[in-house]
Amino acid sequence: MLTEAGVDPKTAEQDACRMEHMISENSFRHLKQSMDKKE
């Protein structure tokens, strides 16, 4: 998602880890389901 928006891969990976720990489990689950559908 972040790399598709133009964020470099290293920064995207770091930010994704931060996002994973800052949002609710429910939001994370929904984001993951949404991303899985795109693959």
From TrEMBL:
Any GO MF annotation of the entry: protein dimerization activity
Superkingdom to which the source organism belongs: Bacteria
UniProt xrefs under Gene3D superfamilies: Iron dependent repressor, metal binding and dimerisation domain
Boundaries of every Iron dependent repressor metal binding and dimerisation domain copy: 2-37
Species annotation: Intestinimonas butyriciproducens
Alphabetical list of InterPro entries matching this protein: Fe_dep_repressor, Fe_dep_repressor_sf
Official protein name in the record: Iron dependent repressor metal binding and dimerisation domain-containing protein
